[in-house]
């Protein structure tokens, strides 16, 4: 396997280098052909790298920059004053060809805005979308998009998301003819916004896609669809609701506090209702589903949660490496070009 270089915003996230650097070391240990460009404050980064083996340090290049994106005054201000920040320099490294993908746990809106400006959407793509994998009760994984990049979407936006999601699922989950569903408030044809109903008509007409209809929110984790398509508003709300519920359930299942009545009762109910799936539920690792990717761009950009721990951020790095090695942007572009609608 050929060597791969990723650009890392080492200052992004709630804790910055104290998470991103140990996670980088972990990712490098797991992937011997990976190298990292670390953008951030050298004085903070170097002490955290000092205990790493020389073989690991040799695959890390630190690009010093003391400035970070400050979104407290609004995204427009942040973008205008992003020069020489760790996030912008990491994206520019990809733009210049010095790295094959970018990973950041910084501000989502800033990352999306800078990526769209510097890396550009693929030809024919109206709007890039945030995409992520989600677990299912079957033990498999599903793909869901958009998760917040586009609050309002028309039918063609949703249709393009479905196309990109299908290609992404084929090349990251190794699926053939993935099942596509539109997230809606009901399964009846008359339900939902006009944009969703019109998107359904477009998807039905495309025989190259395996469109299975509408999906309600209570079936997001049931494995009924491989690709779940929605606008960024509903997608972001749904994902954060799932994440919060999952963390609370897992916390209760793993709790050692026997004095907690809620933990005791809830644990009993889960054991009774799910029985054979109980152990599988206890073993779910939410760190494996950290972050999302901004697809529809010319290069790979992965957004990690700002609150990600070391293990979760290492997974985000591994995800970016996988997408870069499998050339996901190029495969999306090739797949979209086969579709006549995008060529109009």
From TrEMBL:
Which reaction is this enzyme known to catalyze?
a fatty acyl-[ACP] + phosphate = an acyl phosphate + holo-[ACP]
- Which Gene Ontology terms of cellular component type are present? cytoplasm
Q: Where in the cell is it found?
A: Cytoplasm
Where do transmembrane segments lie in this chain?
A: none
| Pathway recorded for this protein | Lipid metabolism; phospholipid metabolism
Against Pfam families, the record matches this protein to: FA_synthesis (PF02504)
Question: In which domain of life is the source organism classified?
Answer: Bacteria
* One GO MF term attached to the UniProt entry: phosphate:acyl-[acyl carrier protein] acyltransferase activity
UniProt keyword annotation of Metal-binding present: no
The residue range of the signal peptide is none
Q: Which residues form a coiled coil?
A: none
**E.C. designation(s):** 2.3.1.274
Q: Which InterPro entries match?
A: FA_synthesis (IPR003664), Phospholipid_synth_PlsX-like (IPR012281)
Q: Name one GO biological process term.
A: fatty acid biosynthetic process
Q: What class of enzyme is it?
A: transferase
Q: Which UniProt keywords apply?
A: Cytoplasm, Lipid biosynthesis, Lipid metabolism, Phospholipid biosynthesis, Phospholipid metabolism, Transferase
Q: Which family does it belong to?
A: Belongs to the PlsX family.
Role, per record: Catalyzes the reversible formation of acyl-phosphate (acyl-PO(4)) from acyl-[acyl-carrier-protein] (acyl-ACP). This enzyme utilizes acyl-ACP as fatty acyl donor, but not acyl-CoA.
Listed under subunit, the entry gives: Homodimer. Probably interacts with PlsY.
The name this protein carries in UniProt is: Phosphate acyltransferase
Its taxonomic placement starts with: Bacteria, Pseudomonadati, Pseudomonadota, Gammaproteobacteria, Pasteurellales
């Amino acid at each position: 396997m050929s060597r791969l270089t990723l650009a890392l915003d080492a200052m992004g996230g709630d804790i910055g280098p104290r998470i991103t650097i140990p996670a980088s070391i972990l990712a490098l240990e797991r992937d011997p052909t990976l190298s990292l460009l670390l953008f951030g404050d050298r004085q903070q980064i170097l002490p955290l790298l000092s205990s790493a083996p020389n073989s690991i340090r040799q695959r890390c290049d630190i690009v010093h920059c003391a400035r970070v994106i400050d979104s407290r005054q609004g995204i427009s201000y942040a973008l205008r004053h992003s020069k020489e920040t760790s996030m912008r320099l990491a994206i520019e490294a990809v733009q210049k060809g010095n790295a094959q993908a970018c990973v950041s746990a910084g501000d989502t809106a800033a990352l999306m805005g800078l990526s769209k400006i510097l890396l550009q959407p693929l030809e024919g793509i109206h709007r890039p979308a945030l995409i992520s994998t989600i677990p299912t009760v079957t033990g498999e994984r599903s793909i869901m998009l958009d998760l917040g990049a586009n609050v309002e979407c028309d039918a063609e936006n949703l249709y393009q998301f479905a196309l990109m999601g299908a290609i992404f699922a084929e090349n990251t989950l190794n699926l053939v003819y993935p099942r596509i569903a539109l997230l809606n408030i009901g399964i009846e044809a008359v339900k939902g916004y006009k944009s969703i109903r019109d998107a359904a008509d477009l998807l039905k007409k495309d025989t190259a896609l395996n469109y299975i209809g509408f999906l309600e929110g209570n079936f997001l984790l049931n494995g009924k669809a491989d690709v779940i398509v929605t606008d960024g508003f509903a997608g972001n709300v749904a994902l954060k609701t799932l994440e919060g519920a999952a963390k609370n359930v897992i916390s209760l299942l793993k709790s050692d506090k026997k004095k907690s009545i809620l933990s005791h009762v809830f644990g009993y109910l889960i054991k009774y209702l799910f029985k054979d799936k109980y152990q599988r539920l206890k073993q779910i690792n939410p760190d494996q589903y950290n972050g999302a990717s901004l697809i529809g761009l010319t290069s790979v950009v992965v957004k990690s949660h700002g609150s990600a721990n070391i293990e979760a951020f290492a997974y985000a790095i591994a995800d970016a490496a996988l997408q870069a090695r499998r050339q996901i942007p190029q495969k999306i572009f090739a797949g979209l070009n086969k579709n006549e609608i995008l060529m109009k």
